[in-house]
């Protein structure tokens, strides 16, 4: 008797259970679809576990701003989720000098025009909010309603919700795609539309969609509650995030609800080794010490790395893959995957079901890079 491959049929097969894939699976299940989730590793592992978990409206690019603003409205539903460490600490953008201070009115105008509550701070007000900042800073911009979250816990929650709605979790690797589904590592076949949300591994299944892996380091301290109260970023942070430099650092510090302080951020292209580079950690810490000198005296309890998936233009791929029947993609979010995960999922599932989308989906169409 010949061997017959096991075949199961689904309305949607989601490959990858980082926070973006998990959110897509949850939204599809909530819409009544029969969903399979394919994930061999830890739920919320990979880039999700290496994310700072900031929930911020990045306004430098209009399409990025639209997606992050849309997503932030969806995050309110998770404010009381146990284990998510959701904290509406607010964001404080710090201006080092008068040149950076001069950038604030434009940024403030964009935020206010989009309905984001924000207030400019002169130097005196800056230190009233964060007295531990280094002397001599020029001022800042405070966005009080932004938040931080613990991303792996949210990813697990989203997958659990999908499973309770009837989704099936397959603890395997997706070996290959075919026109009507996916072949798993054990040779079994899942039939149905496919959504690939595998982050940096995207080209293994979808080689027409280029992704660059960008390595980042994070440091977390012991518990020092009350040392800082806002998420703190330098105004040049977006320049680092969107820059083409092979390696860069920027000041980004978060107070965690545990009392710990999370310190970032670094970005490195073309770094294949996942190991910790103490030279890069030192460079990142020195940047942080310039803004928060007291950090020198704290004890760190963990240093770790991860890889962010970067698309060719910095915007995620969200939509149908050109030339492939019933194949969809949600990947390439770089450092905004946590912030934009919920909006990305809703946008993707609305497209898949032929429903109107809350925002214009065309800037994220993967067809823009497939020729």
Number of separate domains: 2
- Please give the radius of gyration in angstroms: 21 Å
Q: What's the CATH C level of the largest domain?
A: Alpha Beta
Q: Any idea of the CATH topology of the largest domain? A: FAD/NAD(P)-binding domain
What is the gist of this entry?
With 371 residues, this protein is an alpha/beta fold.
Q: Any overview of this molecule?
A:
This protein has 371 residues and is α/β, with parallel strands linked by helices. It has two domains: 7-50 and 151-210 and 313-368, FAD/NAD(P)-binding domain, CATH 3.50.50; 88-146 and 212-310, 2-Layer Sandwich (D-Amino Acid Oxidase, Chain A, domain 2), CATH 3.30.9. Helix content is 27%, strand content 27%. An eight-stranded mixed beta sheet has the order 6-7-5-15-16-17-14-18, sandwiched between helices. Strands 9-3-2-13-20-19 form a six-stranded mixed beta sheet, with helices on one face. It has a four-stranded mixed beta sheet with strand order 1-12-11-10, with no helix packed on it. The chain is globular, with a radius of gyration of 21 Å. The N and C termini lie far apart (45 Å).
Key structural traits:
single chain, 371 residues, alpha/beta, FAD/NAD(P)-binding domain, D-Amino Acid Oxidase, Chain A, domain 2, 2 domains, eight-stranded mixed beta sheet, six-stranded mixed beta sheet, 27% strand, globular
Set out the fold topology:
Blueprint: E1 7-9, E2 12-15, H1 19-30, E3 35-38, E4 54-55, H2 62-75, E5 91-95, H3 98-101, H4 104-113, E6 119-122, H5 123-129, E7 139-143, E8 147-148, H6 151-164, E9 168-170, E10 174-178, E11 181-184, E12 189-191, E13 194-196, H7 202-205, E14 212-223, E15 231-234, H8 237-242, E16 247-255, E17 260-269, H9 278-291, E18 300-310, E19 317-320, E20 327-331, H10 337-352
Parallel strand pairs: 1-12, 2-3, 2-13, 3-9, 5-15, 13-20
Antiparallel strand pairs: 4-8, 5-7, 6-7, 10-11, 11-12, 14-17, 14-18, 15-16, 16-17, 19-20
Helix pairs in contact: 1-6, 1-10, 2-10
